[in-house]
Amino acid sequence: MMDPNETQDANEKLSDILEQNLFNIKREIGNSFDIKTRTFQKRLSDGSMLHAGVVYTEGISALQSKISDLFSETETAGSLCLQPSECMDAMKQSILTDANIIDIFSLGELFHYLLAGYCIVMLDGTHRALAVDTVDVKARPVEEPSVQSVVRGPREGFSEVLSWNTAMLRRKIKSRNLWMESRVVGRETQTTIVVAYVKGIVNDDVLEKVRKRLDRIDIDAILESNYIEEFIQDKQLTSFPTVFNSERPDVVAAQLLEGKVAILVDGTPFALVVPALFVQFFQSPEDYYQRADFATLIRILRFISFHLTMLTPSIYIALTTFQQELLPTTLIFNLASQREGVPFPAFLEALIMEVTFEILREASVRMPKTVGQSISIVGTLVIGQAAVDAGLVTAGMVIVVSITAISNFVMPAFNMGIAARILRFGLMALGATFGLFGVFLGIILITVRLCNLKSFGVPYMSPMAPIHFKDQKDSLFRVPLPWMQLRPGSMKTKNRVRQKHYADGPESES
């Protein structure tokens, strides 16, 4: 919980003495070099002197380029008033046309806006200060998403600037029903997060759960959206992600229109979307930018690749160790001849190859981009061929591991691919211990676990378990868009009607 002394400092009122306020600011911020102060004075109409001070954060505030205009407007305001409070009102009116102005009365409010890039204007003789929006955003420009890329579709992705991300959502959904609630999380970082939803569509129960879970967060720092994800997800001990994330505005906008809630965090290009369903992680934005038949074919291919990633090594180990009678005779002879000089059992052989490939994959990610991809490809080819020539592994095992690795890259959601990689090792151990019976036992346990998972009260396996026949139009298959008149029933949205009935299509016009 927050220190009582911190609460007291946050509620401390500003003094009416300018020098005292400047002293308190420097004391509380530890005389930090990036906190700059400027003082100036102006003679009022009655002959007295108006003492004013400006405090700003160097590098965040753009006051260097606006300070002359700010001072000139302040001087103009000062010549028309007699009291500091009147000067403050006149100053606010004169600057309001150029920037956002906020009245602040406490030291806690002052630091909140000061460290966010606002310029703080104070006058001697008044307890009030003005926070002037002079924020100068220095960030990576809007670029094409590097993770969730598409062949056809929008090329813009979220950036680290929260205001830019909300603006991109507004561009996608130009409706007054798109509501955005702001919160500040993190005692030290004071990170701003935004909860976005479409009023009139979103399920109120889901929205209320999101609010309650966010309000329960009490941590010193929020540096990335995963901090929020781990606090609000339903189950901590599960390999499967129950919170969806995306760096694409079009994906988040589509999810909002299905009645889901998006959480945007300042400082990261990845937005969170809840509730998350299992089938959602196999859907790519390109599915809706291509023809329905092609999208269906690719989506089925993704499901097949997921099962190949998770099951291929374990089934190979089980068949070659226990159930050789299920293999063709010629194949058994070939595999047996390959294993003559291999000193390791199939499980240890697969484990060595899988761990080696994981190391190469991680190395390619951490290395510079110019050499990372080449190292991954060359390293895999060289090590694999050398291991076969040295008699450490069989050629069949190299093929199995290669198919497993390539299938993993087909998944549109990176975190679902990680879940398959984690479960693969457990299934390999079951296959090496009990054969195919162990593999089937592992599949049953995984299926039961998936059916027991929920994401913000919504069954994780919807619309397949429990079955929703009308929602099958956009699960394993993707029917043409005119056929999808309703939003998913598993979300229990307020307004399920997505579009008017498009019965006969363009042919009916003739």
Explain what you see.
- By secondary structure, the protein is an alpha+beta fold.
- The chain contains 16 helices and twelve strands.
- Strands 1-2-4-5-3 form a five-stranded antiparallel β-sheet, with helices on both faces. It has a five-stranded antiparallel β-sheet with strand order 6-7-9-10-8, with helices on both faces.
- A hairpin with a 5-residue loop joins strand 1 (35-43) and strand 2.
- Helix 3 (63-78) crosses helix 4 and helix 10 (292-321) packs antiparallel against helix 14.
- The longest helix has 30 residues, at 292-321.
- It starts with a helix and ends in a 51-residue tail after the last strand.
- 34% of the residues are buried.
- Mean pLDDT is 83; it is low at 1-8.
Summarize, please.
With 510 residues, this protein is α+β, with helices and mostly antiparallel strands. It is built from 16 helices and twelve strands.
Keywords, please?
single chain; alpha+beta; 45% helix; disordered N terminus
- What is the 3D form? elongated
Distance between the termini: 70 Å
Mean pLDDT: 83
Order of helices and strands: HHEEHHEHEEHEEHHEHEEHHHHHHHEE
Largest sheet: 5 strands, antiparallel
Strand arrangement, major sheet: 1-2-4-5-3
**Estimated share of beta-strand residues:** 5-15%
Helix/strand class: alpha+beta
Weakly predicted, low-confidence segments: 1-8
Tally of separate helices: 16
Give the beta-strand count.
12
Give the C-alpha Rg. Answer: 30 Å
Q: Which range best describes the helical content: under 10%, 10-25%, 25-40%, 40-55%, 55-70% or over 70%?
A: 40-55%
